[in-house]
Amino acid sequence: MKTTLNLEDNILRAAKVRAAETGETLTRFIENALRDHLASISSQRTDFRLDLLVKRGRPVPGVTLDDRDSLYEKMENRD
């Protein structure tokens, strides 16, 4: 796929030099560099674990679970 990139001059020059040293085209060199970078990022990723905070309690008088307005009133101390 063709695309256009805006690269800093010094990065592009260094990439061209390295590509020439390794006998690769600039396109192939950039593809490999991106592939290696993306692979290293995905290998560093760890599984996410969500620890839930569980609180025990009793129902509050005047609040019914199917009536959110009564819950909000209690939370805002609007008796």
Measured as a percent range, the helix fraction is 40-55%
What is the chains' assembly state?
single chain
Low-pLDDT sequence parts? none
Mean pLDDT: 87
Give the number of helices: 3
Order of helices and strands: HHH
The class by helix and strand makeup works out as mainly alpha
Strand content: under 5%
| Tally of strands | 0
Distance between the termini: 65 Å
Largest sheet: none
Silhouette: rod-shaped
Q: Over the alpha carbons, how many angstroms does the gyration radius reach?
A: 29 Å
SSE diagram, text form:
Elements (H helix, E strand, L loop, with lengths): L8 H14 L3 H19 L23 H8 L4
Helix pairs in contact: 1-2
Explain what the structure shows.
The chain is mainly α. It contains 3 helices and no strands. The radius of gyration is 29 Å and the shape is rod-shaped. The mean pLDDT is 87.
Question: What key phrases describe this protein's structure?
Answer:
79 residues, mainly alpha, 0% strand, rod-shaped
